[in-house]
Amino acid sequence: MPDISGACGWGDKPEAKLDCRGAEDVRPQGNCSQVSYPVPRQIGQNYNGTSYFTDPVYIWGNDRTPDMGLGWSWGNPCGLVWNDFVREGRDYVLGTAKPGYSPYVYPHPLTQDGAVSEPLHAPANLSVVQ
Q1: pLDDT for the residue 100
Q2: What are the φ and ψ backbone dihedral angles of 11, each rounded to 5 degrees?
Q3: For the segment 81-116, what is each residue's pLDDT rounded down to a tens digit?
Q4: What is the number of domains present in the chain?
């Protein structure tokens, strides 16, 4: 991930920007006193069909640690503390591969030197229904 440094006076920019908009504006949890971690559907959370669970975003495999754009983008009408909602190690992880990750095998194991190692066959036992 290259360093994003703008020419013509724009200055250095973050390479990745994380936000937690649900804590800033619509407030799906109610009024400001009811807003707490985790905000529904915020970064670092996932949903399994019945409940939410912590599932951080992993950023790795770069030749440098990216500058992270962290903080409120849409205002902060409740005066919330950013690190209460988005925290490194819990909601995002830098420089470590996601557990269970395995790189894509290239070339694909069914090919050998870029050629298909087993011939492809057309489907059999098909019929046309009108």
Answers
A1: 93
A2: 80, -175
A3: 889 999 999 999 998 999 999 988 887 777 766 565
A4: 1
Model-wide pTM > 0.85: no
**What is the CB neighbour count within 10 angstroms for residue 68?**
16
Give one DSSP letter per residue of 67-80, joined into a string: PEEES-SS--TT--
Q: Please, what is the Cα angle at 101 between 98 and 105, to 5 degrees? A: 150
User: Which residues, in sequence order, are CB contacts of 59 under 8 Å at separation 6+?
Assistant: 1, 16, 66, 92, 93, 94, 95
Residue numbers of the domain that contains 38: 1-130
Give the model's pLDDT for residue 9. Answer: 64
What 3-state DSSP class applies to 23? helix
- Could you say which DSSP state residue 16 is in? E
Whether the link from the prior residue into 119 is cis, omega within 30° of 0, is: no
